[in-house]
Amino acid sequence: MTNHPRHLLHGISPLAPLGKRGKGVRVSPRTFELRLSSRWQAIVLLSASALVSCFLAAESLRVGAAAFLARSFDPRHLEQAIRIDPANAAIHRRSGFCYLDSAEDLAPRQAVREFRLATELSPLETGGWTGLAEACEATRDQICADRAMAHALKLSPMAPRLDWLTALNFTVSSRPREALPYFRRLLALDPGYAGSVFRLCPWSLDDPEFVLDQVLPKSSHAILKLDYVNYLADHGKNSAAVIVWNRLAARHPSFPLSSAAPFLESLLRSDQTREAQAVWQELEELGIIQQPEPGASNIIFNGGFERAPLNMGFDWRIQPSPDLFITRENEEHHRGYYALRIDFTVPENDNHEPVYQLVPVLPDKHYRLAAYVRSDSITSGSGPRLQVRDPFCDTCLDRATAPVTGSSPWHPLSLDFSTGADTRLVRVSVWRPRSRSFPFEITGTLWLDEVSLVPIPS
Fold it and tell me: Which one of 17, 148, 232, 314 has the fewest CB atoms closer than 10 angstroms to its CB?
């Protein structure tokens, strides 16, 4: 009998599928080897993945621990962070700033060491270079500081803060002229640094022409020059501010009135009426201020309240109070379209000056102050009136019209007065003094229109 393999005698193929009765199959040695090899590959891959995961987890823990320690400004914690993660430039930078804040004698040198490591580890990070410049300056190594700042500027040439730090470095090291190009570029990049530049620049208060020509950028906007004007005025240098203003106004710039207001108010506070008047006239010529009712003789500005008061300069100034309600009204007026309405809303006995205007005048001259008023139910015998006085000398000039009381239709009020030998500015106002007789408290409404102040013959 011929010998046959056992599986052939039984009529079963080694790769035959399960029969209907669900009998199993035999697996060839080759198939078994393949399957065994696949299992080992899977085990090896899983083991490698587990090892990588463990390594990454450990690395994350290490980096996380270093980052946690680096949050502190405690030198001991920072030293631990550096030991854990010595290649982290950010930790070296933080350590450098920590040493700069320290009062220890060796701290500046240690700061230099940390910042040098930071720049070596991360040479494209400007923070390390600016920190190195500060640390070198603390150790009086000016060459190192200059090189570090130059490197930072090369990395970020359009960063205004770096121009500021460079200019600061030159100025505090007694080299202000070397700071000039950085001042100019800083202000060209970011005019918001103007106040800081003016405070730092040694010529700001003493040589306005030099500042205009050498510090401010050639293409600087009018607002930047006005910032300098206001800076001079704030420091009591009104004469220098006038020089800058005159050069600015000669170019007929355009700017908001609010930018010139601080300078104008400074002139008025310091009794420089002529200079303030010249600035006001130039603002009118530039079209920044418009006189609503120009007149040949009336020197009151906006006497009919046809425009909302500017609350500055030589226009009306409204002084709000919780006891008063002040508004421009177009339903009740004597002429034009508007009048000023003042409501005494809370019954009380107090001094009030709800509205006033500063008016430039000539000394030793005669003037007539006039207006039209209307009243409704003003209770106090000490009612509102028109007042004119010298704001710098109460004993030189202080006059008032008769009070307005009760209810009355539109009618004129007038007052003649003379200015003193030194009077160049008067304060025209609606004034209600405290009552000294019954009824004391005041309520009611006053309307004011067509206020005028004109010179009259002697």
Answer: 17
Residue 351 contacts residue 433 (beta carbons within 8 Å): yes
Residues 342, 56: Cα–Cα separation, whole Å: 77
153: burial class by Cβ within 10 Å (0-12, 13-18, 19+)?
buried
Q: Residue 394 has what pLDDT?
A: 85
Whether 253 and 261 have beta carbons less than 8 Å apart is answered as: no
CA distance 200 to 172: 9
What are 22-79's pLDDT values in tens digits? 445 555 666 655 565 676 776 666 666 666 655 555 445 444 544 545 455 566 666 7
Domain 67-285 matching CATH 1.10.150.40: the answer reads no
Query: Dmax over Cα atoms in the chain, in whole Å?
Result: 161
Strand 398-400 and strand 385-389: the pairing is antiparallel
Please give the model's pTM, rounded to 2 decimal places.
Answer: 0.75
Q: Superfamily for 317-456?
A: Galactose-binding domain-like (2.60.120.260)
Each residue's pLDDT tens digit, 370-405: 999 999 999 999 999 999 999 999 899 999 999 999
pLDDT digits (tens, 9 = 90+) for 181-200: 999 999 999 999 999 999 99
CB 241 within 8 A of CB 229: yes
Residue in the structure block whose two tokens are 């040098």 = 116
Domain ranges of the chain: 67-285, 317-456
CA dihedral 84, 87, 90, 92 (to 10 degrees): 80
